Amino acid sequence: MSALGAAATPVAVGEARAVARPRIYTCTEWGARAANGTIDVLDRKPTYIVVHHTAGTNATDYTVEHAFQISREIQDFHMDERGWIDTGQQLTNSRGGFVTEGRHRSVEILDGGTRHVQGANVADHNSEIIGIENEGLYTSVDVPQALWDSLVQLVAYIGQQYGIAPSEIRGHRDFNATECPGELLYGRLPELREAVAAAMGVPAPEATRSWPLLKTGARNEKVQALQHLLRAHGFELQADGTFGASTFAAVRRLAEANGVTCQPCYAGRSVDESGFAGVTTWPLLVRTVRAGDTGEVARAAQVLIAARGLRFAPDRVIDIPTWQDLLA
């Protein structure tokens, strides 16, 4: 059973069409430092392909030389400031569409298609995932076309090599409560799954359920529902629908009380995400409610139902999948 509750569905070999191997520049080609520890190669395939953003500058230098420089800067940061043995992600995709190897041996092992280089880019899930860092910050701007086209080809190739279905393409925030890979790039993941499915010659996947990410400055019914849920757990704050300092602090205290550590985007020097409400927050708060129930949890459900112009029907049950649908 996977971390997200369902085993990955492998691509049927007979259905897949050949995906051309993209050009991937190796660690030697971009001038990587030697790793200062042993690269762990697991005798199994990864389950998920995870999309990240580097959360850095949206550079206008689209050259391969710039892609190499970004790779060196990421490695220096990960080794010198994070204290890791090497670059955390397996692969990096530049804004110019140039793909470079991240952690040593990642290309060799990917081409083999049977084993997995364990990286350090999705906390608590690194044995399950192969990660791609996409250069830039995509919270409010879209990715360049060159990066997008490169990402589609790269992900399709990874899917082919490991038999990973397009439905198992995820964003970093599907595992940790982090902004990564940015609101706009994350919002395009359904499109990415469809494009990758087309490239692989397999059916487009059905929509996947996930938990939303809420952060400081958000104002909507999802925030109000979150606040009602926090109130149900004893936190004193107004359910006004505005994600301010008190909501941030309550989410952070909830995480601390339940032993959930902050696992932010590690590509660069990120903002404080310790009070973001995301995939590790919602399961601590929601529970099944029914029509006629009272209290803060029921109020949270009522807020979401009303926002959709619906009513809490007498026979309605709000279970975990329904919470995810209402919060989508």
Q: pLDDT under 50 segments (min length 5)?
A: 1-14
Coarse shape: globular
Q: Percent of residues in beta strands?
A: 5-15%
Structural class: alpha/beta
What's the story with the biggest beta sheet?
A: 6 strands, mixed
Describe this structure in a few short sentences.
The protein has 328 residues and is α/β, with parallel strands linked by helices. The protein has helices at residues 27-30, 64-80, 106-112, 145-162, 183-187, 189-200, 221-232, 245-257, 282-285, 296-307, 320-327, and strands at 24-25, 41-42, 48-53, 91-93, 99-101, 116-117, 129-134, 169-171, 289-290, 317-318.
Feature tags:
single chain, 328 residues, alpha/beta, six-stranded mixed sheet, two-stranded antiparallel ribbon, 11 helices, 10 strands, 34% helix, globular, disordered N terminus
How is this structure best described in words?
The chain is of the alpha/beta class and 328 residues long. It is built from 11 helices and 10 strands. The protein has a 6-stranded mixed β-sheet, sandwiched between helices. A two-stranded antiparallel sheet has the order 2-6. Strand 4 and strand 5 (99-101) form a beta hairpin. Helix 4 packs across helix 6.
